[in-house]
Amino acid sequence: DGGITQSPKYLFRKEGQNVTLSCEQNLNHDAMYWYRQDPGQGLRLIYYSQIVNDFQKGDIAEGYSVSREKKESFPLTVTSAQKNPTAFYLCASSTDRTYQPQHFGDGTRLSIL
Amino acid sequence: GEDVEQSLFLSVREGDSSVINCTYTDSSSTYLYWYKQEPGAGLQLLTYIFSNMDMKQDQRLTVLLNKKDKHLSLRIADTQTGDSAIYFCAEWDYGQNFVFGPGTRLSVLP
Fold first, then answer.
1. What are phi and psi for residue A106, nearest 5 degrees?
2. In the 3-class helix/strand/coil scheme, how is chain A assigned residue by residue?
3. Beta-carbon separation of B103 and A42 below 8 A
4. Which of A48, A102, A106 shows the shortest C-beta gap to B41?
5. Burial call A55-91: b when 16+ CB within 10 Å, e when fewer
6. Helix (H/G/I), strand (E/B), else coil: B10
7. Nearest residue in chain A measured CA to CA from B1
8. How far apart are CA A65 and CA A62, in angstroms?
9. Cβ contact A101–B8 (<8 Å)
10. Is the preceding peptide bond at B102 cis, omega within 30 degrees of 0?
């Protein structure tokens, strides 16, 4: 079955440490997205990518970085510059960056030790 | 910029109908979406509608759109305990981003 796989499901970060969240899709989608979800708030866009080797900042990109070396993969690094990283992170993909619905992975919950 | 608003909580009795409401601000034609999120999981697409439509029905789900008031609703008939989740309304803005509401937490009481 086609889908989006995020790993790990739970991740813990120590102070001053960078951590990388994995996102893989086998839907042959061109566009991929990273969102942050905090309780009682909607999803906020961190980064998105329309095509391989291209990505753009979203609304809350500070303290995060991404790469898009393969169509299937869009990893997100939470750097030590992100002062409040505790959140639920969701990866999504869509056919292209139009009105086509976005399909989501099951998320990664990041906590600070 | 665009904004999507929803009430945060809704409680219904099992077997009743649930109506989850959403308002949006985009003044042009747009696409509107409903997603469901179960605890600890990602968002699952339920349905979506273009703003030139008034209604869309899919089994127990009915979406109603009032374009004049920019009001979107999701009606769930015969609500079951498995429908307990957070429901997100989203709008596609022509700047090519999705704008999500804060989500409505639906609790289904036995």
1. -90, 0
2. CCCEEEECCEEEECCCCCEEEEEEECCCCCEEEEEEECCCCCEEEEEEEEECCEEEECCCCCCEEECCCECCECCEEECCCCCCCCEEEEEEEECCCCCCCCEECCCEEEEEC
3. yes
4. A106
5. beebeebeebbbebeebbebbbebeeebeebebbbbb
6. strand
7. A59
8. 8
9. no
10. no
* Average pLDDT score over residue span B11-36: 92
**CA–CA distance, B11 with A81 (Å, rounded to integer):** 40
Tokens of B26: 């985009």
Q: Which residues of B touch A58 (CB under 8 A)?
A: 97
B75 with B30: CB under 8 angstroms? no
pLDDT, tens only, A15-34? 889 999 999 999 999 999 99
The tokens describing B63, both together, are 């979406």
pLDDT beyond 70 at B7: yes
pLDDT band at A98 (very low <50, low <70, confident <90, very high): confident
